[in-house]
Amino acid sequence: MKILVAIKRVIDYNVQIRVKEDGSGVVTDNIKMSTNPPDDNAIEEAVKIKESGKATEVIAVTIGEEKAQETLRKALAVGADRGIHVKVDGAVEPLAVSKILQKIVNKEKPDLVFMGKQAIDDDCNQTGQMLSALLNWPQATFASKIYFKDDKLEVVREIDEGLETIEVSLPAIVTCDLRLNEPRYASLPNIMKAKKKSIEQFNISDLGVDITPRVQQIKVEEPPKRKAGIKVANVAELVQKLKNEAKVI
Amino acid sequence: MKSKAKVVVVGGGVVGVSALYHLAKKGWSDVVLIERKELTSGSTWHAAGLLPLFNMSYSVGQLHKYAVNLYKKLEEETGKNVGFSAVSNIRLASTRDRMDEYHQYAGVAKTIGVDVKFLTPQQVKEIWPLCRVDDLVGAIQHPEDGYIQPADLTQALATGARNMGAEIYRNTIVLAMKQKRDGWIVETDKGSIESEHVISCSGNFARQTGKMVGLDIPVIPVEHQYIVTEPHPEILKRKKAGLPEMGVLRDSDSRWYMREEAGGLILGPYEDGAPACYLNGPSKDSEFELFQEDLDRLAPHIEGAIHRVPAFGEVGVKKVYNGAICYTPDGNPIVGPAWGLKNFWINEGHSFGITAAGGAGWQLAEWIIDGEPTIDMLGVEPRRYGDYVTKSYLKAKNEEAYSHVFIVHYPDEERPAARPLRTAPCYDRMKNLGAVFGQKFGWERPNFFATDGMEQKDDWSFRRSKWFEAIKKECQNVKNNVGLLDMTAFAKSRIKGPKAEEFLDYLVANKLPKKIGRINLCHALNTKGGVHSEFTIMREAVDSFYLVSAGGNLRLDHDWIKKWMPTDGSVIFEDLTNRIGVLVVAGPKSRELMQKVSTDDFSNENFQWLTAQNINVGYAPVNAMRVNFVGELGWELHHPIEYQNHIFDKLMDAGRNLNLKPFGIRAMNSLRIEKSYKLIGTEMSIEYSPYESGLERFIHPNKGNFIGLDALNKWREKGFENKLVTLEVHNTTNADVLGNNPIYHNDKIVGRATGGEFGFRLNKSVALAMVKPDIGHVGQKLKVDILGTMHDVTIMNESPYDPENKLLRA
Q1: A33 and B292 in contact by Cβ < 8 A?
Q2: Out of B286, B296, B313, whose CB is closest to A188?
Q3: Does the beta-carbon distance from A188 to B277 stay under 8 Å?
């Protein structure tokens, strides 16, 4: 069994995001980047399945600028077997991402496609679902537990009402939740070894996918600044303020 | 926010908060600190918190020692835990040169009073069982050293400062700073503050802060990364068993530090190729900023670390921090007064800021409140650089300083980046004669000459190396024939005007030369009576004086003059450095040489020692001064710089039959030590009175008032603790005194050497040293530690070579 894991390079979650002065986006120059956190869970799950003997190969794929390869190297360092890099400069919208992944799936013919439930930079939460539609494969989103049941997959999903368990037949798309597992850290020798693993590169023109943006971005703004808090003298005052000023109780 | 304060500190990293704390502690509670974001949000927050006492510099070493002692007591004083882990610090050595470095350093440490132990590889293994030791030569350990939590330290200092009345304004941006009479108006987005003093502690923003007041502060940060691993079972096991932390490990030859962190390990390498960052300053919104990691750059050091500590490779990498650390061209910070401005202080360029913050704040507070520091701060002096430090120079040199953090700090090291930069006209001629150059204040100066087939390349060592033979030839030729030295890098200036004499007389402790053409060696003391600057002063006219001082101290000396100079136009100062070149001829045949190239009269009757005359050399105008720093008959030839090659060629041409040969700075150092001649920064410093430095004959306390006189008189009443002596070092084989070597009498430290070299005219190894006066008499036998070996020494007469200056007067 082959597992394809789609990962994205995003601004590191520790970085204080700064909006460009002209409102055209956020500052990314010389900013620390890393793998989209739920994508780390996707890689971890795939590697674990391979370690349990159920899968034979884990392929990591990413779409982005030249430096996105660093993200692939990290996936290779924790156990992915090889990488695929689709070179694109600038942002790619979820529909285009799904179409690119569709091409890669057709080429690689994996039995499972894993990815994070959403990316922490644009928070779209669309790619897995769109890819499922394009391929006409079943989807299991927000996976927090995955079990193999004969030739099917049982997936526990985290939803607003609680946990939902579903069963999907393979091939399938699974988008991973942060609680699915605890991603491992790569050791330095494995990081060094990952440099020798193969990364296949494609230009967007090689794949024949139209990535023209469909969404027009008007403006990027910082969220309004939080006002300074106040100190209350006692519980009574707190209750009074919550009732009369905040009107929450 | 206050509208008035005695001091405004700009910047709330550990460095700024420590400055605030020390001002308050010294009694100035009306002080404020302005921070654009949150405290520590620049570089302090991501510092690894190490407290390395190791430093080859006598002044920086004292600052670090003070800081470690302060941080230990801070919790008791402020009630805030600073996370001080005194786990000790072990530096490994894999080569003999590295051990030599540690022995030389141990000398510095002993004279400062820092505890250093030498360890065998087996002892290292006992403390650090996870460390491989079979390929080590040895190690040193600082038992008192360790690490601290930088943010907690900053908060504790802030609490201490606030408790003493200081105020801290966060999220406040300095927009402009304007000088108003002697004080400042600091404009912020929350209002203006009028203050007497401003201290710039702005870290990564140093150049922007400087720009607000017209200063080009020589600081640009460099990226530094450290790696944090997840817990290792072996370390967790040690913790469970209650074993102590293994201490900070430094593998100098593989260029990294390592320590335990939450059951895992931290590795911080100092690699080649780390780029300078924030070349045009950080973004105005920058806070808690990290850069993209680049592990490829660290690969050789990571391999070295896994070789040394295999456990490090066995666990996963939890996080890589890549953040900005401030750097200066020599890697030491910039602490002290700004040049050309009143009451503006610089506390910037800290690459070991956590360790240095305590001492820097302490000395700055003394400097600001008492007018002078108590420690010789030349090593961190802001005015040790000059206009030659451009932004591109800084980028090249700071990246070099970063990659050199762990190199062996040879005493004769000359770093290659950004060279050649400033060259005297005779540079190419000297190079063709075999010159191997060093750099001082941006100038290329011949250090020695490789002749007779010797490779034209430097050879650094703590011991006598290849150039020992080269300078032997140079010194012998100066003794027997005549030598030529390029001293164009000298700082030169003219002070003239109706009140020039009155002002200079107040500036220096010696009497000024009375007759036109006379030369005196004069010392400017600081207000505490220590020696600040040395000037050779020649009276050119009734109201005009020509001053020469050390090239490396140009900005320091000239700023000192301007600081005290009357501003009413009655005294005019002119810097002549870049307009005037200096070639020195010295040796018994120099008179014959001069007579061949000039129509003027160089006889002793017509041209006496310590006088100057305007003469011609070939067709060129020259101001010939009959002085030199090597103790032979000779002249310094000061000339408009465009004539230098004409003069050079005339001298070399005429000197062919006289065996005229060039000599360099290292030969000069050997020659001057045989004459007990002193240098600022070693034998003379603000820590020593001129009497301790053996300058009695240049000090005239009864001539009338001069800067430092009161303090000097009081110091003399109190009694002196040091005496400069000249030593013969016995039984040397392949190493001489380098300076900072401890001197022993009956196994007790009684002083430290300030410099040394083999004296080829005396055929003795000679050293200069500061010792306790009661054992400072001629004939006294003492011992000196040279690279870990004790040598007998005997105090000689001052100026053991030609003690009566007969050759100089010949």
Answers
A1: yes
A2: B313
A3: no
A17 touches chain B (CB under 8 A): no
Percent of chain B residues topping a pLDDT of 90? 96
> How many helices and strands (H and E) does chain A possess?
7, 11
Can you tell me the ipTM of this complex?
0.85
Name beta bridge partners: B810.
Answer: none
A27:B283 CB<8 A: yes
Binary contact (B227, A188; C-beta < 8 A): yes
Q: What are phi and psi of A147, to 5 degrees?
A: -125, 145
Say if residues A92 and A63 touch (Cβ distance below 8 Å).
Answer: yes
Test B313 with A189 for CB contact under 8 angstroms: yes
Q: Rounded to an integer, what distance in angstroms lies between the CA atom of residue A12 and that of residue B368?
A: 43
Comparing alpha-carbon positions, the chain B residue that sits nearest to A67 is B292
Which domains, from first to last, does chain B contain? 4-370 (3.50.50.60), 426-485+580-688 (3.30.1360.120), 491-575 (3.30.70.1400), 721-810 (2.40.30.110)
Residue keyed to tokens 């009175």: B689
What tens digit of pLDDT does each residue of B674-684 get? 999 999 999 99
Q: Among B600, B581, B641, B597, which residue's Cα sits nearest to residue B482? A: B597
Indicate the helix (H) or strand (E) that contains B99.
helix B96-112
Residue B50 φ/ψ, nearest 5 degrees: -75, 150
Nearest CA in chain B to A18: B285
Q: Write the CB contacts of B231 (distance below 8 Å, at least 6 apart in sequence).
A: B262, B263, B264, B315
Q: Which of B229, B288, B303 is closest, CB to CB, to A16?
A: B288
Comparing C-alpha atoms, which of B738, B734, B732 is closest to residue B666? B738
CA distance B630 to chain A (A): 54
C-beta of residue B798 within 8 angstroms of C-beta of residue B792: no
Q: Which residues of A touch B283 (CB under 8 A)?
A: 18, 27
Q: Are strands B482-486 and B660-662 parallel, antiparallel or unpaired?
A: parallel
Taking the CB of residue B355, how many other CB atoms lie within 10 A of it? 29
- What is the pTM assigned to this prediction? 0.93
Query: Splitting chain B (810 residues) into consecutive groups of 10 residues, what average pLDDT does each group show?
Result: 97 98 98 97 94 80 91 95 94 95 92 92 96 96 93 98 98 96 95 98 98 97 97 97 95 96 96 96 91 92 97 96 96 96 97 95 98 94 97 98 95 96 98 98 98 96 97 98 98 98 98 98 97 98 98 98 96 98 98 98 97 98 97 98 98 97 98 98 96 98 97 96 98 96 96 97 98 97 97 98 96
CA distance A159 to chain B (A): 30
Domains within chain A, CATH numbers bracketed: 2-244 (3.40.50.620)
Rg (CA), chain A: 21
Contacts of A236 (CB under 8 A, 6+ apart): none
- What phi and psi, each to the nearest 5 degrees, are found at residue B139? -165, 165
Spatial distance between the Cα atoms of B324 and B289, rounded to a whole number of angstroms? 8
User: Residue B229 and residue A192: Cβ atoms within 8 Å?
Assistant: no
CA distance to partner chain B, nearest, from residue A246 (Å): 27
Pairs across A and B, CB distance < 8 A: 53
Distance of CA B740 to the CA centre of its chain: 13
A31 touches B: beta carbon within 8 Å: yes
* Among candidates B287, B299, B313 on the partner chain, residue whose Cβ is nearest the Cβ of A187: B313
Give the up-direction half-sphere exposure of residue B452: CA atoms within 13 A in the CB hemisphere.
8
Give ∠ CA B406-B384-B688 in degrees, rounded to 5: 95
**Residues B585, B651 contacting (CB under 8 angstroms):** yes
| Residue count (chain A) | 249
Give the minimum alpha-carbon distance from B357 to chain A in angstroms, rounded to a whole number: 27
DSSP secondary structure code for residue A249 in this structure? -
CB contact under 8 A, A16 and B313: no
